[in-house]
Amino acid sequence: MLTAHRSCGIALAEAFDRPPAAYQSLRRGGITGQGTCGAVVAGQLLLGEFLGDPDPTGKVTPALRAAMTRYLARVEAELDRGSSPDLVCNNLTSPHGEFLGPARHGFCTALVGQVAQLVDDTLREHGVAHTATPVTLADGRRYDPTLDLEPAPKTS
Length: 156
Prior knowledge:
Blueprint: H1 8-15, H2 27-30, H3 38-51, H4 62-78, H5 89-93, H6 102-125, E1 135-136, E2 142-143
Organism: Nannocystis pusilla
Protein name: C-GCAxxG-C-C family protein
């Protein structure tokens, strides 16, 4: 593992340079596993942060309405849910064994990557280009995705 474990919502918040604290509540489908996948909900929140009206009493912006419609349609059509009939966290993850096991971790990591791509595509369709920023890997090295496609191998 190159990076320390993060919940799906926190991983997406960090990927789009948003403060991650509130995204903790998305962990495991709203903590209980009974809610919608935290990655999918994080995608909705990110679109709101980037395309919504900053005035809390403002109306839904046309850009946000269009982006949300597009994002949710793509989630429905493209997101790899495995054998799950819906986007409920427990239904998505239960076929992959232990919650902290490698199969479930791999499934969720891939799902988060798909959601990040859908969010990025949707934002770009609305004129918002987000540049990936460097991250600190589990071993303390910094990885800058704008310079490398793969992090340098660890040398001892």
